[in-house]
Amino acid sequence: MADDEVRMPRAALEDLLDSAAERGAKKALASIGLEDGTAARDVRDMRSLLAAYRTMRTGALQQFGKTVALILLGAVFYFVAGKVFPSLPTGGK
């Protein structure tokens, strides 16, 4: 066996990898300020805030689309009424 080779049982290697992965995850969470006991609640709050934003954005876009459609329909009816009923004050002659 060469000087730089290490031999260990599979179970010991898996334990070593698990430990390293857990330390790495804790370090990554600490680097973004989520290392304390309230981290799970903070993440849930952020998800809930993001979901509320998405719902609000979708609703606002739908309402804007409905408003534009209503304005366009109103304009079409206004001009059609001017052509069908020229005596109305729509400007159609």
What would your notes on this structure say?
- It is a single chain.
- This protein is mainly α and 93 residues long.
- It has one domain.
- It is 73% helix and 0% strand.
Helix amount: over 70%
Number of strands: 0
For the record, give the distance between the C-alpha atoms at the N and C termini, rounded to a whole number: 102 Å
Q: Tell me about the biggest sheet?
A: none
Taking Cα atoms only, what radius of gyration do you get, to the nearest Å?
A: 33 Å
Q: What's the average pLDDT?
A: 88
β-sheet strand percentage: under 5%
Broad shape: rod-shaped
H/I helix tally:
2
Give helix and strand order, one letter per element, not per position.
HH
Instruction: Report the structural category.
Output: mainly alpha
Name the features:
single chain, 2 helices, 73% helix
Q: How do the strands and helices of this protein lay out in sequence?
A:
Elements: H1 10-31, H2 39-84
Give the structure's gist in a few sentences:
With 93 residues, this protein is mainly α. The protein has helices at 10-31, 39-84.
